[in-house]
Amino acid sequence: MYQGEAFRLEFTTGVRRSLRLHDGLMILTVPEIPSEETVQRMIDSWYRKQALLIVKERSIECHRRMQDEGIPLPPITIRSMKTRWGSYSYQTRRITLNLNLVKAPPASLDYVICHELCHIKVRHHGPDFWRMVRRYVPDYLVVSRQLKLYS
Known about the structure:
three-stranded mixed sheet; alpha/beta; 42% helix; Zincin-like
């Protein structure tokens, strides 16, 4: 999965190791038949590179939409997380996003970023928090349900 779309994994041989998307395929180029571990490591590395690019772009856009709130755009870390899509730390003033968000549709990533930005102003998941989220992601209930498909 990548940004909400399914891709079939295909292997080709070549001198340089690479991974690219083309016509519904995720094409993994390797010099010899890879082990499962090598395949997983290459895919994870590719996801991480893509996540860094996508998260930077989407966080700037989400922050721009929310500029009237006067919220700063904090540093964002991407890592594998087992039980959460994102979190905001009041101690470090940093947002952490789940690496698996690159598998979900872009609207899901925007929702999680906006959700975490809202936590900068409203600490808990009370009515004020959800009103603020709804202001920036009106269909957040639908989007949050869709996220369950990518965990």
